[in-house]
Each structure stands twice: as C-alpha cells, then as structure tokens.
Amino acid sequence: MIPLDALSFVGEELSRPECVLTLPDGSLHVADWRGGVTIIAPDGSQNSVLAQGAFTPKPNGIAIHPEGGWLLAHLGDSDGGVYYLKPDGTLDPYLLEVDGIPLPPTNYVHVDADHRVWVTVSTRIQPRGDDYRPTASTGFIVLKDTKGSRIVADGLGYTNECLIHPVSGQLYVNETFARRSVLFDVAESGDLSNKRTIAEYGAGTFPDGLTFDADGGFWITSIVSNRVIRVDRDGKQELVMQDCDPAFLDWVEEAFQTCTMGRPHLDDNKGKVLRNISSLAFGGPDLRTAYLGCLLGAQIARFDAPVAGLAPSHWSFT
User: Fold this and answer.
1) 35/74 Cα distance (integer angstroms)
2) Could you tell me the sign of the dihedral formed by the alpha carbons of 161, 164, 298, 307, in that order?
3) Alpha carbons 28 and 23: distance in angstroms, whole number
C-alpha cells in the first residue's frame, strides 16, 4: 500500500475540486464550485474560467468538450442538468431535461471517443442525503448523441462516475451506495445490455471516482474512507491507499446500515491528509502520475502509480 507521506499536492485555494481531468500538455482541469473550471498549468500557475451571467452552475463532474471548453454536471440543491462552458466564460444550456422531465441534481458527465455524452443522476430523492442508503435504487444514466437524449439505464444504486472503456467500448459505472461497480455492453445504437457486477465492496467503501489502467484494471476512489482501490482484469481487489480514522468510519458504517446516514457523515471527514477523495485521473508524459480530486480540500493530491494509466478519451480530441 502506498504510504501517505508519498503524496504531494498541486493547486492552491481550489473550490471543491471534486473532479480532476488531465491533458496531454500536462495541465489539470478541475471542477470549480464557484461556477466553472480551474486550469492548473504544468508550472503550477492557475487560471479560473467561471460562468458569466446571472446563473451560476455548481459543477460536480466535468468533461472536456470536443470543440473546446467543458461540459459541467450541475449539482444544484434541487435542480440539475448539463451546461456548456466556453473558454470565454459563456455558459449555454446543454441538456436540462429528458423525456420532457427536468433533470434532478446531476452528478457526472463523460464524453467518449465517438463524442457521445453520458450523464449520471445519482438519485431522484430529495434531499439527496435521504438516499445515502443500501436501498438506493433511483439513479439513472442518460445518453445524448446524434439521435437525441434518452435514459439508457435506470434503477441504479446511487449512480456516480461512468466511463466508456477506450479499448473494449464497454460502459463501467460506480453505484456508490449499492457499493458496487457494474459493466454494460454498449450497442452501436448506444443501447445498454448485459449488466453485470464486476466488483462489490465491503464496509467503509463507497465507490465514487473511476478510471482505467493500461494493464486491464480499473481504479476507484471511495468517499468517506479516502480509499483508492485497484481491481484487476480478474476482479481481484488491491487497496492502494487509505486515509481514515477507524472510529469515524465505524460511526459512518453504523449510520449507513441503520439508514440514518446523512450529510454530516460526508462533510466531517477525518483523514490525516486526504479530504474526502472523489475522483482519480492518470497524467504525466508516461501516465504514471495519479491525481486525486476531493470534496473538502483545496488542493489536488498526487502520487506515483505502480502501473500506467490508460489515456482518457478526451486526449484524442483536437
């Protein structure tokens, strides 16, 4: 297991950097809760692009747009949707409803190599904290492509990050409070089929972030316990990193099992150095540097990974 003193940090005074993306030029693009994205250059300098206008989105997941700028998954208190933020700060609605119904608070957005857009909504229950339960089952996935937008998977246990594997073309999905990662086959039409569980997680693990490595494995980050777990191609799990207080984790676990878990269990994280990690991205010239987004910190943690990552789909965008 990688020790915590092997971590270093990048970025300063970031605002809820929940999602981190890497680019081939060595820069990091980080969700900015103030209403946009902060870019951290290889030399450490920062530039924030915040939405201009009366509406301020709350970006949770972000994605690089193939034509420049970013798609933002808006995690409002009661409203959601996906917005398109251009490099000049112009903000345009991108996807606010599906099947004529407004999107609830929206968790994540992913653009695959074919420029299809995948969007996750964790829950239809309001407030969202009332669904931090083993019984969570109202999450869904929306696909937007040249044919329009539609729900392609439903009944999920608090849907979080989803990614199309750049090699296999299958869709990987984390169900945070069902405590599992699942896999779908993807038809040419975008329809999903053959859902199966590829990893189930034990006490204290709540899978949030998701990414792939070059050896056929996938990695998840766990909120609350600050765990990084690698799952190899055979389904074997390896705990790569952990930063949690056992007593705090026991308190959260008891609340989860008794269906009393709520915001305080997420907002008072007891890690020594990590601040409720929520995403992971491989970067650097050899894709051997792992970067960790987080819910509560103001910096991005990074460490040298034992295996190389797989280049994300947006690295192919021009």
Assistant:
1) 9
2) positive
3) 6
Q: State the pairing for strand pair 159-164/227-231.
A: unpaired
Q: For the residues of 205-232, what is the DSSP string, one character each?
A: --EEEEEEBTTS-EEEEETTTTEEEEE-
Residues in the chain: 318
Q: Are 214 and 310 in contact (CB under 8 A)?
A: yes
Q: Are 313 and 112 in contact (CB under 8 A)?
A: yes
Identify which of 300, 301, 314 has the alpha carbon closest to the alpha carbon of residue 17: 300
Q: CA 150, CA 167: separation in Å to the nearest integer?
A: 24
Tokens encoding 102:
């407004």
pLDDT tens-digit readout, 67-121: 999 999 999 999 999 999 999 999 999 999 999 999 999 999 999 999 999 999 9
Q: What is the pLDDT of residues 202-219, one digit of tens each?
A: 999 999 999 999 999 999
Q: Which of 108, 104, 129, 105 is nearest to 60 (CA)?
A: 108
- The whole-angstrom separation of Cα 152 and Cα 171 is 11
The residue assigned the tokens 């650097």 is 284
Strands 59-64 and 46-50 turn out to be: unpaired
CATH topology of domain 4-316: Neuraminidase (2.120.10)
pTM above 0.85, yes or no: yes
Decide if 194 contacts 187 (C-beta within 8 A): no
- 3-class secondary-structure state, position 252: helix
> Nearest CA to 53 among 16, 88, 13?
88
Cα 10 from Cα 27, distance rounded (Å):
11
Rounded distance between C-alpha atoms, residue 32 and residue 62, angstroms = 9
CA 8 to chain centroid, in Å, comes to: 21
Residue extents of the structural domains in the chain: 4-316
